[in-house]
Amino acid sequence: MITLDRVRKVRSGVTVLEDVSLRAEPRHVIGIMGRNGVGKTTLAHIAAGILRPDAGRIVIDGRDPWADYKTRRLVTFVGHQTLFDPMMTPMQALYFHARIYGVQRASDRIAEVLHVLDVPQPDQKMIFQLSAGTQKKIELAKAFICDSQVYIFDEPTTGLDTATKTVVWSHIRQLAARAAVILISHDSMEVRTLADQVFLLSGGKLQPIEEGFSLGTHHAGETTVRLEIANWNPVLKEELRGLSGVRSVTVHSQRQDPSELIRHLKEQGLVLPEGTPVQVITLDDDASEFLARLGLTPSQAAVIPAPPGPAELILTLANMAALSGVLTWANEKGLNIRRVLADQDAEVTSAPGDAPSASRGDLSE
Amino acid sequence: MNSVVVLWEHEVQSALRRWSIIVPSLFSGLLGMLVLAYGFRSFFHSSSYYLTFATGWISYAMVLTGVTAGLTATLDLTTQRIRYLLSLPVPPGAIVLGRLWGATAVTALISTVLLAFAEPLILRFSFSALVAVFAVLVIQALSVVGLVTALTYLVRDISKLGIAASIATGVLQYVSSVYFPPSVFPSWARPLVYVNPLTHAVDFMRALLAQSSDHLALVMLIGETTCLVGLGYALMRRALLKASD
After folding, report:
1. Are A167 and A34 in the same domain?
2. ipTM score above 0.90
3. pLDDT of residue A21
4. Which of A63, A315, B181, B187 has the least CB density, counted as fewest CB within 10 Å?
5. A148-164 pLDDT, tens per residue?
């Protein structure tokens, strides 16, 4: 078991990780997604003991890997590119690695794993002479040779062909049957296929994506995401809609039903003849609906945004990677996201301004 | 097996596989030894000078290798290598020592091979003296590697490192007793000669050739080596830990 407790990391003056906490237990796969440069590899390196956190701590099986170096035997880190000495042959590199991790019958085990991963003649060429895909396989072989309690994979299948990807996924599943696995990937399909719990790293924080992932099933294409925001500001809607990968935005503020307002105004004897300038103090899509019910068009009304308040946003995204961009943007705007729910299988039917559907809550099912 | 032992074994084996460092140094050293054995022997009727020179040559022959191996041990630590080493279940200190052992092994190898060739051709050490000479050569190799490692981290600028390495090589070679005994040097230069670890290694070997012993030279060599290796170790360890920040 590995625990990251309130980990903070600043690199080149930029806070890459801020109070990141994570706990990976045996028979559990944690998926971490996020945009390029958001700090996923830094997080992986901290978990693997390569980088030291500026604050917070790492605990592996109850011990601090920076105080008790033997604890690192319990962790296998697989980088997105091989960290082995490029001047060694795969066999030499893996044999050394296996020995230092105390693997029994190392040669047989290496030969077996390299055969499965389809690495030909592992003792003929040096690592730098191999293709990028084969180098990746050599790096992956580390994980399948060592019997660790925690496995950290950083983009494990980038650059691999589909057949090898399937083999690797199958092996990761086997490892996850007994060990804790942290899987960092851009590939939402990979994360959905393998992870039990998914986090999005954005703005230095890990944002859990709740219950919305349907493991084992995947349909290419759009994704619907529901965000609950404590301090949504309606003026941000157009900006949000313009973000890369954002197909549509629907906002549901937790405010009074517009029909109630209309009824109330009518009761007060307020009748608005057509063409009357109206100033409506409102926030979001409800404003459009309110104006429409009054028979007015936006050109006839000045909309003054109200102060930020709680709202629920339904976003249609091109893919899950776009969510990372949204969360980073939200962080930059100081939005307090209380909850993120995603669902890959939900069809996107709502258009901007549509009323929330009754079944919206099922998106996460 | 203990992870640290596996790491050290690996570092030494990797260093000894660096033929690009070993072959040129061996070729140059052996050629020099052959010229000495046959050239000086026929030109000088007394054997004293070429015996004196041979011990200096055996000691000096490792310097170029030591500089190259020391530089390699440090410059070879790319970000990729450091990350891999830091992920291993060994403390940073053990990683540093592994690098130093590797560089020392390849450095000592050159002088040891030269010693093996010189023994039947020129020198006539007893077996016990040979063992002592081998031990002294290993200690000297450690001192050269320690010096170069420290120099690498002190200079840092790779373009200036070449200049620093050349100066260090020149000083180790000429401001020492490799070619002449310290008494030949002017009094102001003698302190520099005695700071040079090669002086003590060569003096120790020459004393053995003369069927005597120079314990002070050995003590001085061990003391200087401890300082140089300690400095190199501390600077490399600091660099390694900095890479983990």
Report:
1. yes
2. no
3. 92
4. B187
5. 999 999 999 888 888 88
Cβ-based contacts of B91 with chain A (< 8 Å):
69
> Tokens in use for A364?
């996460």
User: Same domain for A48 and A195?
Assistant: yes
Report the C-alpha gap between A328 and A215 in whole angstroms.
25
Q: Are residues A313 and A198 in the same domain?
A: no
Q: What residue numbers bound the domain in which A298 lies?
A: 223-364
A18 belongs to a structural domain? yes
**CA atoms of B178 and B58, how far apart (whole Å):** 9
Cβ distance A188 to A319 under 8 Å? Answer: yes
pLDDT tens per residue across span B133-185? 999 999 999 999 999 999 999 987 888 888 999 999 999 989 999 888 888 89
| Angstrom distance (rounded) from CA B9 to CA B4 | 9
Q: How many whole angstroms separate alpha carbon B186 and alpha carbon A184?
A: 67
| Spatial distance between the Cα atoms of B107 and B73, rounded to a whole number of angstroms | 12
- Per-residue pLDDT tens for A274-283? 555 555 554 4
Residue A176: CATH number of its domain? 3.40.50.300
**Residue from B150, B145, B165 nearest B102 by CA:** B145
Say if A218 falls within a structural domain.
Answer: no
Query: A85: distance to nearest CA of chain B, Å?
Result: 6
Q: Are A78 and A154 in contact (CB under 8 A)?
A: yes
CA separation for the pair A74, B166 (Å, rounded): 45
Statement: residue A181 has pLDDT above 70: yes
Both A14 and A163 in a single domain?
yes
Query: Where among A209, A242, A268 does a domain terminate?
Result: A209
Co-location of A88 and A114 in the same domain: yes
CA B4 to CA A361: how far, in whole Å?
A: 56
CA distance A70 to B3: 9
Average pLDDT of A221-232? 80
Both A244 and A192 in a single domain?
Answer: no
Using the beta-carbon criterion (under 8 Å), do B89 and A72 form an inter-chain contact?
Answer: yes
- Residue to mutate among B4, B10, B238, with most A CBs inside 10 A, is B10
Contact list in B for residue A79 (CB cut-off 8 A) is 83
Task: With CB atoms and an 8 Å threshold, state whether B83 touches A79.
Answer: yes
**Does any CB of chain A come closer than 8 Å to the CB of residue B7?**
yes
Of A209, A231, A253, which marks where a domain is finished?
A: A209
Any idea which of A42-56, A280-294, B29-43 has the lowest mean pLDDT? Answer: A280-294
Into how many domains does chain A fold?
A: 2
Instruction: Indicate the pLDDT class of residue A217, thresholds 50, 70 and 90.
Output: very low
* Cβ contact A33:A188 at 8 Å: yes
pLDDT for A265: 65
- Side-chain-side CA neighbours of residue A12 (13 Å): 3
